[in-house]
Amino acid sequence: MIDLNADLGEGFGRWTLTDDEALLSVVTSANVACGFHAGDPSIMRRVCELAAERGVRIGAQVAYRDLAGFGRRSMDVPAGELADEVAYQIGALEVFARAAGSRVSYVKPHGALYNRTVHDADQAGAVAAGVRTAAGAQDLPVLGLPGSLLLAAAEAAGLTAVPEAFADRAYTPAGTLVPRSEPGAVLHDPDAVVARALAMATEGAVRARDGSRVALQARSLCLHGDTPGAAQLALRVREALGAAGVRVEAFA
User: Fold this and answer.
1) 207-217 residue pLDDT tens
2) What beta strand segments (E) does the chain contain?
């Protein structure tokens, strides 16, 4: 059993990047950009409405305040400020999720913030604190890399930690993502992506770029919405998982 998530709402004004409608017909969880790396109020509202109509879980994809860099530039944001910005982004999306008859069901950092919180305790703790503020007395699960400081911080804050894997990204032998600045960081061969998704879901493992086998227990599988042909690729992955006897559904 595995959840399929994708990054959606990654546009701004007249500019669009992700095929939100097509992807929402395939995935079980939608990571919706909250305006800091992409997205604007109208896009957020529209994606929440489509997700609610199709029974897709809505997640807040929080990021550094970096529209120009698409949230892929690491920033040294003070912990208190970062926590407030995370809570702010979740709150903004919650308004549109509730208006659509749904709610924000989880949180996932984007880009540089996601990678930074793998090893930076200060930034990981700030993200968890921001989620805790937005969640109040309730639980608000946090998606992150298995073994990351982010998931540890989430658990310490009383939040559910959900480990995820990336079918279309290359891994280091340490189980971290190969930086996008390096060649081969993103996989573009559909057959290779499907094969990796199957291995992750059925074997709990992935081949690192040096060929070594890395154990990888994940409850959610990410397919990037900004990859060319993302919707068709996501459909292939879902069909392959089903054929292999893997049930695709949102994490509890």
Assistant:
1) 999 999 999 99
2) 3-8, 11-12, 15-16, 29-33, 57-62, 104-109, 142-144, 161-166, 205-207, 213-215, 220-223
